[in-house]
Amino acid sequence: MAEEQAVETVLKMLETAAEYDTATGGFRETARIFPQVMKVTAAGLNKVSEDEMAALYEKA
Amino acid sequence: MESCDFLGLLKEGGHLSAAPGVVQEGLLEQVEGTTIMAVRYADGVLVAGDRRATMGNLVVYDRADKVLSIDDDTVMAIAGSPSVAYDIARMLEMSVQYYRRSQLQRLSLDGKLRTLSRLLRQNLPMAIQGIGAVVPIYAAYDQDAGERRFSFTTSWAPSSNASISAPRGRVRTLSAVRSTTRIAGARRSRRWRRNRQWRRCSRC
């Protein structure tokens, strides 16, 4: 699975969880609340930034 | 004996119902409504979590960080009681740093897992009482073995990629301890006797 696809899948799953579970928060663009996504690769740790996240949600 | 874990054993022996309200059926499985996950992809692992912290039916905080970096190549995502979870994460981070600084080399992945296991096991009494259960996911990029993910139970060893099963490991550890004490009891080392003598001298 490519990175972009993986991030998209993870965000979709989190959205589904947020929809069916009250204790799981969804994204709120106006308040700029996005889920946390961290990439663990050979190059080290990499956080998906808020701006990247905003762009992803914009696209979706 | 049907079950191989300790709680199952207690249940079989009828000891769990003897203390009503302390341990209930399904308490350890149903911890919190948080969602955290780790997904494997082409370059490594993706660890994700939502941001909501709840207390009963209240949303207490909407910007909670549940995906925490422990060091340069490991990440821990937490679910469960936040105070205990952050405490465990901090302790783990400190242990890894302390090892690196005192031993002048990095702690191995197995070492980190063992540290986390120990921290979780220390928290077991709280988890059983239903007030401090923590269920983390631990993801790491092992330079030799590639990416690895581990999920933990509220009390002991990692599952998923790891090959050890917790209850069996526990029993084995117990018997190892017993056999070493027996050997030590049979003949104490010279160093031990010397230390004992020294201690006796310094007391009087």
Can you put this structure into words, describing what you see?
The complex is a heterodimer of chains A (60) and B (204). Chain A is of the alpha+beta class and 60 residues long. Chain A has one domain (3-59). Chain A has helices at residues 3-20, 50-59, and strands at 36-41, 44-47. Chain A has a two-stranded antiparallel sheet with strand order 1-2. In chain A, strand 1 (36-41) and strand 2 (44-47) form a beta hairpin. The radius of gyration of chain A is 12 Å and the shape is globular. Chain B has 204 residues and is α+β, with helices and mostly antiparallel strands. Helices cover 41% and strands 20% of the residues of chain B. Chain B has 6 helices and 9 strands, in the order H-E-E-E-E-E-E-H-H-H-E-E-E-H-H. Chain B has helices spanning 6-12, 82-103, 109-122, 124-129, 166-186, 190-203, and strands at 36-40, 44-49, 53-55, 58-61, 67-69, 74-77, 137-142, 146-152, 158-160. In chain B, the strands form 3 sheets. Chain B has a 5-stranded antiparallel β-sheet with strand order 5-6-7-8-9. Chain B has a two-stranded antiparallel ribbon with strand order 1-2. Chain B has a two-stranded antiparallel sheet with strand order 3-4. In chain B, strand 5 (67-69) and strand 6 (74-77) form a beta hairpin. Chain B starts with 5 loop residues before the first helix and ends with a helix. Strand 1 of chain A pairs antiparallel with strand 2 (44-49) of chain B.
